[in-house]
Structure of CHAT domain-containing protein:
Amino acid sequence: MGDLVEFNGIDADTGGYLFPGRSLDELVAAVRSQDTASPFLRAMCYRHDLAEANYGVASFADDRDDLGQTGWGVLSAQDADPRVLDALRPLLDLRKSQAGSYYREFVVSPGDDASTFLRRHGMGPDPADPRKVPYYLLIVGPPTEVPFTFQYLLDVQYAVGRIDFDSVAEYEAYALAVCEAEARDSAKLPVHLFGTCNPGDRPTKLSSTQLLEPLARELIELAPGIQVTKDIGEQATKDRLSELISGGPAVLFTASHGLGRANGEARDIQGALVCQDWPGPLAANGILPGHYYSGTDVTGPVAPRVVFSFACYSAGFPTEPYVARLPQRLLAHGALAFVGHIDRAWGYSFLWSGSSAHITAMMSCVLAIHKGRRIGNAMEDLNIRWGTIAATLTVRLEELKERKNVDERELAWLWTASSDARNYVLLGDPAVRAG
């Protein structure tokens, strides 16, 4: 790892980096303040130590894609608008017909965290038991009602997604889109990779060369017959992304800077995807609407069924909790699922020890989506990566407390990698398939 860690993300006001790089010393100081009793670390260490081949669902469920074995449930806040669940009734009825006795509708009480919720329904830190709490769980409503932290921790054991729209009509449109998609024949669908390599910009150079290009090669090598197309570098313009959104492939994977403001006060553009049109951090003219693709650019039907975006705040913002506008609009106009980042996205999503590319978790997730696995199940490999990193980090923090010699570079890397791996979330019904 170099002495300066750079973050993904562009400031909407200046056109420069959203966050300055942090030195190794600054990161180590932050790591030393970490508590091994953190609920995130404890939960992921439990998952890692359990080391169960079918972790996620108790072993009596042989097929995690079969809702009749794994179950499906919907969660909403106690004071949620009842019209929302009414609008979702076509989707709820469909899932009830598929899950049978393992279908549930839950109410999240004020102040609930994931552990409290699970205990109230007879579950602890165990593999999902669909007789009590189904494996596939859809949170309905904004993170102000059911927080992102609730979603993170529940996702340790379960396949969890969220939908949050501004209108009842958008909930209804999403439900009908999922029902329509379920009626189609399952098929292995094409994958398109879209990513920038902006002038003078190290983060996008890394993501284009160490993530997108290797990902394309591995998908083709491991899935003969898969149709993989790509726009990387000069071709990755806003106009091209607009074409892909309106008439592109079923599975779209993007890697770019996300746009925003550090205080989160820019919901319409927070997490917008910065395209190749941006002239880079050394340009004097800042950033313009023509340089990025935001929720306001989604004006018609959306072609991709699943969008996976590696970009800062592409899914939402943590401290001013809201779902980002771009995925919200994509899901309201035909997309079935969006995988994105809450908080800053770092190169540690695909770099090991900050230097060499390790993309197995992302490759496995995209391949599973392409093969038609349910999206929540397909994301399990991302959670496995988080669990492994978190377990190693906890060991090193314990050694630090015991005043043992600890490699500070490794410690700083583990902390940033753990934070990065934790912050991927799924927006949409976790039981949908790309095809």
The domain at 56-182 is CATH 3.40.50 (Rossmann fold). Confidence is low (pLDDT under 50) at residues 36-55.
